[in-house]
Amino acid sequence: GTWLAGMLTVAWFLINRVDTTRIEYSIPLRENWALPYFACQVAALTGYLKRNLNTYAERFCYLLMSAWTYTFMVMWEYSHYILFIQALSLLLLDIFSVEQSNKVHEVYKIYIFSLFLGYLLQFENPALLVSPLLSLVGALMLIKCLQLNGKKGTFVAKVMKVIKFYLVCTLPVTLNVIMKMFVPHKENEHMLKFLEVKFGLNMTKNFTLNWLLCQESFQAPSQDFFLRLTQSSLLPFYILVLIICLISMTQVIFRRISLKFIWTPYVCMLAAFGVCSPELWMTLLKWLRLKTVHPVLLALILSMAVPTIIGLSFWKEFFPRLITELTELQEFYDPDTVELMTWIKRQAPVAAVFAGSPQLMGAIKLCTGWMVTSLPLYSDDDLLKRNENIYQIYSKRSAEDIYKILTSYKANYLIVEDAICNEVGTMRGCRVKDLLDVANGHVVCEEGDRLTHSKYGRFCHEVKINYSPYVNYFTRVYWNRSYFVYKINTVISFQS
Known about the structure:
496 residues, mainly alpha, transmembrane helix, Dpy-19/Dpy-19-like, 63% helix, single chain, five-stranded mixed sheet, Dpy-19 like 4
């Protein structure tokens, strides 16, 4: 109800941009393009769920929500997991009668429509058909169709509630199992295994899963994260607003039935809403039972004074820092990579196929257009296995093994990165070569495992020395401080 909350949200978002977005320090990936549409979808959904909304405003919000949900679904292959959490939240609101049941089920229809349209436009992506979102909303729509309403308070009505609760808990799982039996799929398997390991339900030596778990974006928030949010005054106000909202919602629930690179941007929004909301301050003042000043007047004063004080503190502490950062002109400087790309464009045959780390292969594909063996995509099991196989160039495998792997993918050139080969990781056991040693059984991972001693040195080191049998399979054609390029020999001549 006030523009001040919007301004405060933007200010908090910018000040905490290291934690609200990773667009500053990483290549824009699909989620970077998709998340703004999700924000629009949340806004339209919030408007649609409002009570006492006129017919035209309700239809407008419904159309916007349909468009943004579909766009978000098409833009990012993992969007259905985010919408699954949203659907669970709507289910809880429906169960506790906080929101109108008919509106919630209209949202479920949008989910189903978006899933099937996304399935068709994503070249019949089977991951959407076996997604937990489709199983959940499909089951809930089916329960809605089968629902028999008895008179409130009667024995039949109570029995129907028990049956409904049982169906809500079991039917989505049953539907998901049935869909997986009839729909061939691989896309979701690695994600489910990843979640099992992440939440401590399982352990694995799989290179890809351990590599993903080692990425900074999947680590638990550090103390610095909470310290940054506290220094910008965001976390204290968020906690205050959240506590008041949760207590208020709990009161509503009990009253109705007689007798929870995505979180941080919405922290900014919720905290700003609470700080600028007279209704929330009034709720807090009523709990404190202040009698000296009228609660309504004091709530109005606080809803303007507190944001003003926060804004002045931002102006004094953070605004000069932002201006300084904006005046700093930064440019890309990586001469070794530029030299490599220039060499590929000028010296490599047009039909050449390059092999190396997925990140470097993605850069080569974008900068030169040459063919590569792998790409940094983690939504396909075949690509994940291919990436793991290519990464074996940093393991303790023989020259013959590496040669067979690379030629199986029709590679002509191999690029070894010194940064990976001689990596000094800050997190123990998270270097690529450490993960490969675990996956290949060259180090002990758990008690009871057998240690397999490799009779070969690390390939990326050995191939640089230029001795047999490595020179029989690979010929160095280019190198600089960071990259070593080897031509994969088509005719192998063994030297003594």
